[in-house]
Amino acid sequence: MQELLAWKAPEHYFFPKSPRWYVAIVVLALIAVVVAIFQANFMFLLFIIIALVVILFLANNTPKMMECALSDEGIAVIREGLTEESAEEGEFYAYPELSGFAIHHNPLDTEYSEIILRKKEKLSTYIKIMIADHSALKAKEILDYYLPEFEYEESFSDHLLKRIGL
């Protein structure tokens, strides 16, 4: 297996949150709690509390770095913290398992783009791998040789999560 391009990148986008962001989230949750209590909808109340805890947990979740590599056989991703012996626990996406790729440039982040991979399996989600903007063109050239490029349109939920900083 010949390595064609290697890079390090974070697992996902991270936007630092100001104290104002936390206040806004808590105020919105409190408004929803008041509405739930007023309507005696305790399932909604439980949902709001769980959602608030999850959002606050995700807000502080700084991404780990990943080592990524494009080779003549596929794409390898190894998460930070894996030892040499456990490097096999990383992920490898062979080109025959993939049906296409796209490069998505995030207008909110000028440092990183995303390589979007689509598996051949019908019910699978997209695989998103961050890459530095200056390496994205080289990655596109390599992937063009092995996979067809497809038009990727970011989902509403992905766009919304990036907008609110999650």
Structural features:
single chain, 166 residues, PH-domain like, four-stranded antiparallel beta sheet, three-stranded antiparallel beta sheet, 4 helices, 7 strands, 36% helix, elongated
Quick structural summary:
With 166 residues, the chain is an alpha+beta fold.
SSE topology sketch:
Blueprint: E1 3-10, H1 19-38, H2 42-59, E2 65-71, E3 74-79, E4 91-94, E5 98-105, E6 112-119, E7 127-132, H3 133-146, H4 156-163
Antiparallel strand pairs: 1-2, 2-3, 3-4, 5-6, 6-7
Query: What is the strand tally?
Result: 7
Given this structure, which CATH class of the largest domain is correct?
Answer: Mainly Beta
Order of helices and strands: EHHEEEEEEHH
Percent helix range: 25-40%
Determine Rg (CA atoms, Å): 19 Å
| Name of the CATH superfamily of the largest domain | Pleckstrin-homology domain (PH domain)/Phosphotyrosine-binding domain (PTB)
CATH topology of the largest domain, which one? PH-domain like
Low-pLDDT residue intervals, each spanning 5 or more residues: none
Please explain how this structure is put together.
With 166 residues, this protein is α+β, with helices and mostly antiparallel strands. The chain folds into two domains: 111 residues, PH-domain like (Roll), CATH 2.30.29.30; 41 residues. The chain contains four helices and seven strands. The model has no long low-confidence stretch (mean pLDDT 86).
